[in-house]
Amino acid sequence: MSKKKKFEVQTNESISECLDRIKKEGYMPIKRMEKPIFQEVKNNGQLSYEPISQQIIFEAIQIEG
Questions:
Q1: What is the Cα–Cα distance from 33 to 7, expressed in whole angstroms?
Q2: How many helices (H) and strands (E) in the chain?
Q3: Which of 26, 35, 43, 59 could join 31 in a cystine, given CB atoms 3.0 to 4.6 angstroms apart?
Q4: HSE of 54 in the Cβ direction (CA atoms, 13 Å)?
């Protein structure tokens, strides 16, 4: 059975750089997940949430050598 691992795109890293890092470690991406990151904002006593960025995570399996 193939070993799975998750890779997160770092703050100062492009998606292609992350994919290169995955490949160098001997893995192949099989799934991409994006999660929004929100910030609490108060306007006139009202609490609301505004998206400020997104977190991109790749799920990868180990390449059989």
A1: 10
A2: 1, 3
A3: 59
A4: 9
Q: How far is residue 9's CA from residue 5's CA, in Å, rounded to a whole number?
A: 13
Cα distance between residue 21 and residue 25, in whole Å: 6
C-alpha 1/C-alpha 14 separation (Å) is 30
Decide: helix, strand or coil at residue 65: coil
pLDDT per position as a tens digit, 7-63: 999 989 999 999 999 999 999 999 999 999 999 999 888 999 999 999 999 999 999
Which tokens go with 44? 């006139």
Residue with tokens 């099989």: 30
